[in-house]
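Dear support,

I submitted the protein below through the web form. The confirmation email said the job was done, but the results page showed an empty box. After a refresh the structure appeared. I'm attaching both so you can tell me whether what I see now is the final result or a partial one.
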Amino acid sequence: MAKIADYFTQSDRKKLFFDYLKLLGILEMVIFIVVALWATDDKYHRVYTPFPWREYLFIAFAFPVIITFLMGVIITGFNYFMGAETELTSEVAAEVAADDRLSTIVGQMRRLPYLGLLFLLLVTILALYNMNHIMGWIASLGEKTFVFLSYVLAGLGVLVTLYMAFFMFFKYKLNKKHMEYEYYSEISDKFGLIILDDRTVLHKDGNLLVQGRKWRRARQVGKLSDNLKLAQSQKRPEDQLPVPK
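What the results page shows now:
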Protein backbone atom coordinates (compact mmCIF):
# COMPACT_ATOMS: atom_id res chain seq x y z
CA MET A 1 0.00 0.00 0.00
CA ALA A 2 1.29 3.43 -0.88
CA LYS A 3 1.57 6.26 1.58
CA ILE A 4 -1.26 8.76 2.00
CA ALA A 5 0.70 11.49 0.19
CA ASP A 6 1.04 9.23 -2.87
CA TYR A 7 -2.69 9.47 -3.49
CA PHE A 8 -2.35 13.20 -4.23
CA THR A 9 -0.62 14.90 -7.13
CA GLN A 10 1.78 17.81 -6.71
CA SER A 11 -0.94 20.36 -7.43
CA ASP A 12 -3.30 18.59 -5.00
CA ARG A 13 -0.69 18.76 -2.26
CA LYS A 14 -0.12 22.46 -2.91
CA LYS A 15 -3.86 23.15 -2.80
CA LEU A 16 -4.24 21.05 0.35
CA PHE A 17 -1.42 22.97 2.05
CA PHE A 18 -2.93 26.38 1.28
CA ASP A 19 -6.38 25.14 2.32
CA TYR A 20 -4.86 24.04 5.61
CA LEU A 21 -3.34 27.51 6.09
CA LYS A 22 -6.71 29.10 5.32
CA LEU A 23 -8.38 26.82 7.86
CA LEU A 24 -5.85 27.83 10.51
CA GLY A 25 -6.42 31.51 9.68
CA ILE A 26 -10.20 31.12 10.04
CA LEU A 27 -9.76 29.28 13.34
CA GLU A 28 -7.46 32.05 14.61
CA MET A 29 -10.14 34.65 13.85
CA VAL A 30 -12.77 32.50 15.57
CA ILE A 31 -10.52 32.16 18.62
CA PHE A 32 -10.02 35.94 18.78
CA ILE A 33 -13.77 36.61 18.52
CA VAL A 34 -14.62 33.99 21.16
CA VAL A 35 -12.00 35.31 23.60
CA ALA A 36 -13.13 38.91 23.01
CA LEU A 37 -16.79 38.01 23.64
CA TRP A 38 -15.84 35.99 26.69
CA ALA A 39 -13.89 38.93 28.12
CA THR A 40 -16.67 41.50 27.54
CA ASP A 41 -19.69 39.37 28.47
CA ASP A 42 -20.08 40.07 32.19
CA LYS A 43 -23.74 39.96 33.20
CA TYR A 44 -23.23 40.72 36.88
CA HIS A 45 -20.48 43.36 36.99
CA ARG A 46 -20.48 46.28 34.58
CA VAL A 47 -16.84 47.15 35.06
CA TYR A 48 -13.99 47.56 32.63
CA THR A 49 -11.86 44.44 32.26
CA PRO A 50 -8.67 44.38 30.18
CA PHE A 51 -8.39 42.05 27.21
CA PRO A 52 -6.93 38.68 28.32
CA TRP A 53 -3.86 38.80 26.11
CA ARG A 54 -2.11 36.06 28.07
CA GLU A 55 -4.88 33.52 27.57
CA TYR A 56 -5.45 34.58 23.98
CA LEU A 57 -1.78 34.28 22.96
CA PHE A 58 -1.53 30.87 24.61
CA ILE A 59 -4.58 29.53 22.78
CA ALA A 60 -3.63 31.22 19.48
CA PHE A 61 -0.15 29.66 19.47
CA ALA A 62 -0.97 26.29 21.02
CA PHE A 63 -4.06 25.46 18.96
CA PRO A 64 -2.34 25.25 15.50
CA VAL A 65 0.52 23.27 17.02
CA ILE A 66 -1.90 20.79 18.61
CA ILE A 67 -3.86 20.38 15.36
CA THR A 68 -0.68 19.84 13.31
CA PHE A 69 0.78 17.45 15.91
CA LEU A 70 -2.36 15.32 16.06
CA MET A 71 -2.61 15.24 12.27
CA GLY A 72 1.03 14.15 12.01
CA VAL A 73 0.54 11.42 14.62
CA ILE A 74 -2.56 10.10 12.86
CA ILE A 75 -0.96 10.10 9.39
CA THR A 76 2.31 8.55 10.61
CA GLY A 77 0.47 5.87 12.56
CA PHE A 78 -1.82 5.12 9.62
CA ASN A 79 1.15 4.75 7.26
CA TYR A 80 2.95 2.50 9.76
CA PHE A 81 0.15 0.16 10.79
CA MET A 82 -1.56 -0.03 7.39
CA GLY A 83 1.60 -0.99 5.46
CA ALA A 84 3.20 2.21 4.24
CA GLU A 85 6.18 0.51 2.63
CA THR A 86 5.76 -0.75 -0.91
CA GLU A 87 5.93 -4.52 -1.21
CA LEU A 88 8.78 -5.78 -3.39
CA THR A 89 9.33 -9.03 -5.21
CA SER A 90 11.98 -11.42 -3.95
CA GLU A 91 14.40 -10.59 -6.77
CA VAL A 92 14.14 -6.83 -6.34
CA ALA A 93 14.21 -7.14 -2.55
CA ALA A 94 17.41 -9.19 -2.74
CA GLU A 95 19.09 -6.51 -4.84
CA VAL A 96 18.02 -3.42 -2.89
CA ALA A 97 17.63 -4.84 0.62
CA ALA A 98 20.41 -2.76 2.14
CA ASP A 99 19.42 0.45 0.33
CA ASP A 100 15.75 -0.04 1.21
CA ARG A 101 16.60 -0.58 4.87
CA LEU A 102 18.75 2.55 4.89
CA SER A 103 16.04 4.56 3.14
CA THR A 104 13.46 3.34 5.66
CA ILE A 105 15.64 4.36 8.60
CA VAL A 106 16.37 7.77 7.08
CA GLY A 107 12.69 8.29 6.32
CA GLN A 108 11.68 7.44 9.88
CA MET A 109 14.37 9.75 11.27
CA ARG A 110 13.06 12.56 9.08
CA ARG A 111 9.47 12.11 10.26
CA LEU A 112 9.81 11.36 13.96
CA PRO A 113 11.91 14.38 15.00
CA TYR A 114 9.33 16.69 13.39
CA LEU A 115 6.61 15.33 15.66
CA GLY A 116 9.01 15.48 18.60
CA LEU A 117 9.80 19.13 17.86
CA LEU A 118 6.09 19.93 17.70
CA PHE A 119 5.58 18.24 21.06
CA LEU A 120 8.52 20.13 22.60
CA LEU A 121 7.16 23.37 21.15
CA LEU A 122 3.79 22.67 22.76
CA VAL A 123 5.47 21.92 26.11
CA THR A 124 7.48 25.16 25.81
CA ILE A 125 4.34 27.19 25.13
CA LEU A 126 2.64 25.58 28.13
CA ALA A 127 5.69 26.32 30.30
CA LEU A 128 5.75 29.97 29.18
CA TYR A 129 2.04 30.26 29.93
CA ASN A 130 2.62 29.01 33.48
CA MET A 131 5.94 30.80 33.95
CA ASN A 132 4.66 32.78 36.95
CA HIS A 133 3.70 29.56 38.74
CA ILE A 134 7.02 27.93 37.83
CA MET A 135 9.04 30.92 39.06
CA GLY A 136 6.95 31.05 42.24
CA TRP A 137 7.60 27.36 42.85
CA ILE A 138 11.35 27.84 42.31
CA ALA A 139 11.34 30.85 44.65
CA SER A 140 9.55 28.81 47.32
CA LEU A 141 12.30 26.20 47.31
CA GLY A 142 14.89 26.45 50.02
CA GLU A 143 18.57 26.88 49.32
CA LYS A 144 19.38 23.26 50.19
CA THR A 145 16.63 21.94 47.93
CA PHE A 146 17.81 24.13 45.06
CA VAL A 147 21.42 22.95 45.50
CA PHE A 148 20.20 19.33 45.62
CA LEU A 149 18.24 19.73 42.39
CA SER A 150 21.27 21.36 40.77
CA TYR A 151 23.43 18.37 41.72
CA VAL A 152 20.78 15.99 40.41
CA LEU A 153 20.64 17.80 37.06
CA ALA A 154 24.44 17.87 36.85
CA GLY A 155 24.56 14.13 37.59
CA LEU A 156 21.98 13.43 34.90
CA GLY A 157 24.02 15.50 32.46
CA VAL A 158 27.15 13.49 33.27
CA LEU A 159 25.27 10.20 32.87
CA VAL A 160 23.85 11.28 29.51
CA THR A 161 27.33 12.35 28.35
CA LEU A 162 28.86 9.00 29.39
CA TYR A 163 26.02 7.11 27.74
CA MET A 164 26.49 9.00 24.47
CA ALA A 165 30.27 8.41 24.60
CA PHE A 166 29.85 4.65 25.15
CA PHE A 167 27.10 4.51 22.53
CA MET A 168 29.28 6.18 19.90
CA PHE A 169 32.26 3.95 20.79
CA PHE A 170 30.36 0.67 20.57
CA LYS A 171 28.55 1.90 17.46
CA TYR A 172 31.95 2.51 15.85
CA LYS A 173 33.15 -0.97 16.85
CA LEU A 174 29.98 -2.53 15.47
CA ASN A 175 30.30 -0.69 12.16
CA LYS A 176 33.95 -1.71 11.94
CA LYS A 177 33.06 -5.37 12.50
CA HIS A 178 30.32 -5.12 9.89
CA MET A 179 32.73 -3.66 7.31
CA GLU A 180 35.29 -6.36 8.06
CA TYR A 181 32.63 -9.05 7.65
CA GLU A 182 31.58 -7.62 4.29
CA TYR A 183 35.21 -7.47 3.15
CA TYR A 184 35.88 -11.07 4.23
CA SER A 185 32.68 -12.21 2.51
CA GLU A 186 33.75 -10.53 -0.72
CA ILE A 187 37.19 -12.15 -0.52
CA SER A 188 35.60 -15.54 0.13
CA ASP A 189 33.23 -15.23 -2.84
CA LYS A 190 35.92 -14.07 -5.29
CA PHE A 191 38.92 -16.18 -4.31
CA GLY A 192 37.53 -19.05 -2.22
CA LEU A 193 39.37 -17.94 0.90
CA ILE A 194 38.03 -18.18 4.45
CA ILE A 195 39.34 -15.55 6.88
CA LEU A 196 38.78 -16.19 10.59
CA ASP A 197 38.69 -13.64 13.39
CA ASP A 198 42.32 -14.30 14.36
CA ARG A 199 43.47 -13.57 10.77
CA THR A 200 43.82 -17.26 9.96
CA VAL A 201 43.32 -17.81 6.21
CA LEU A 202 42.03 -21.10 4.81
CA HIS A 203 41.32 -22.10 1.25
CA LYS A 204 38.00 -23.74 0.43
CA ASP A 205 39.81 -27.03 -0.26
CA GLY A 206 41.01 -27.09 3.38
CA ASN A 207 44.57 -25.88 2.74
CA LEU A 208 45.91 -23.68 5.56
CA LEU A 209 47.58 -20.61 4.04
CA VAL A 210 48.12 -18.19 6.93
CA GLN A 211 48.26 -19.10 10.61
CA GLY A 212 46.85 -16.31 12.73
CA ARG A 213 48.53 -15.65 16.08
CA LYS A 214 47.06 -13.58 18.88
CA TRP A 215 49.03 -10.44 19.82
CA ARG A 216 51.58 -11.27 17.09
CA ARG A 217 51.86 -10.98 13.35
CA ALA A 218 50.25 -13.73 11.27
CA ARG A 219 52.61 -16.32 9.75
CA GLN A 220 52.31 -17.81 6.26
CA VAL A 221 52.39 -21.61 6.41
CA GLY A 222 51.01 -22.71 3.01
CA LYS A 223 50.81 -21.79 -0.65
CA LEU A 224 48.26 -22.03 -3.42
CA SER A 225 48.54 -24.96 -5.81
CA ASP A 226 49.72 -24.43 -9.40
CA ASN A 227 46.19 -24.84 -10.79
CA LEU A 228 44.87 -22.20 -8.42
CA LYS A 229 47.72 -19.86 -9.34
CA LEU A 230 46.93 -20.34 -13.04
CA ALA A 231 43.26 -19.60 -12.44
CA GLN A 232 44.26 -16.58 -10.40
CA SER A 233 46.51 -15.24 -13.18
CA GLN A 234 43.69 -15.54 -15.74
CA LYS A 235 41.35 -13.29 -13.77
CA ARG A 236 40.85 -9.63 -14.51
CA PRO A 237 43.21 -7.16 -12.82
CA GLU A 238 40.43 -5.76 -10.61
CA ASP A 239 39.66 -9.30 -9.35
CA GLN A 240 43.26 -10.08 -8.40
CA LEU A 241 43.91 -10.87 -4.76
CA PRO A 242 45.98 -8.05 -3.23
CA VAL A 243 49.57 -8.99 -2.49
CA PRO A 244 50.31 -8.82 1.28
CA LYS A 245 52.93 -6.29 2.25
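Response: this is the final, complete result; the empty box was a page-load delay. The helical segments are 10-40, 53-81, 90-95, 97-129, 131-140, 143-191, 226-233.
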